[in-house]
TrEMBL record:
Name assigned to this protein: Lipoprotein-releasing system ATP-binding protein LolD
Residue ranges annotated for the ABC transporter domain, each copy included: 21-247
Keywords for this protein: ATP-binding, Hydrolase, Lipoprotein, Nucleotide-binding, Transport
A GO molecular-function annotation: transmembrane transporter activity
Family: Belongs to the ABC transporter superfamily. Macrolide exporter (TC 3.A.1.122) family.
Recorded coiled-coil stretches: none
Gene encoding the protein: lolD_2
Enzyme Commission number(s) of this protein: 3.6.3.-
Pfam families from the UniProt entry: ABC_tran (PF00005)
Amino acid sequence: MPASDAEAFNSDRTSENRLLLSLKSVSKTYITGDVSVPVLRDVDLEIYPGEFLVIVGPSGSGKSTLLNIVGGIDVPSSGDVYFYSQNLSQFTEMELTRYRRKHIGFVFQFYNLVPTLTARENVIVSADISESPMSPDKALELVGLEHRTDHFPSQLSGGEQQRVAIARALVKNPELLLCDEPTGALDLNTGRMILEVLGNLNRELGMTVVIITHNSAIGEMAERIIRIGSGTIAETKVNSHPVAANQVTW
Ligand code: ADP
Ligand code: MG
């Protein structure tokens, strides 16, 4: 990458007060009985408002742990997590719940839809617990599912179910859309469609999107790629020419 591109990105994005979220020296060790497993070691991470960030790393490198800490599902063993100027590490359980509800949308590999609810009802459940939701039909339209709203998950393809899951996350108007292996269960073409939906939400709504994946090809469509290995950040790269979702291949 030419130095001038990195400089342009940096001058535009790096002023501290523009950070949406940052991790400062975050470590995480899981302790089960007398076995302790260090998973993250001294991780510093910055997420800028409106960016499309991909974090890649092999299976077991600590990606999901990292995303869960960012999303307030898990807490670090040491270090701090700042959401704007608020330190999540000092939040009570209730404040963390409110943080997740109000600011975070989660998309998982296996959709996690309620099987007995229709697509629209799955999205409504999420809208009902959020403080400033968009209309559920609007969210379903944004993912291109306006014709499938009354179908149950079992009547939808994997890609369609993932789009419902994205609509369910999106309906909350979250500050951050966190996606854990969102294409992991999908074939190439369906995976590309999901990436296209995520890319459109970023471009058209200005939504901040973070994808974590073991699939480094997905990094090609990111503005910034962070490589994680054995619980530490091995590399951060600014991508001056992100490719369109339909050009990503694996
Ligand atoms: P990735 O998403 O990159 O595959 P994870 O963050 O899921 O990696 O896991 C990293 C390591 O942490 C793995 O070795 C995993 O077994 C371990 N781990 C994750 N969650 C827990 C937990 N709740 N208790 C104990 N070990 C865990
Ligand atoms: Mg994982």
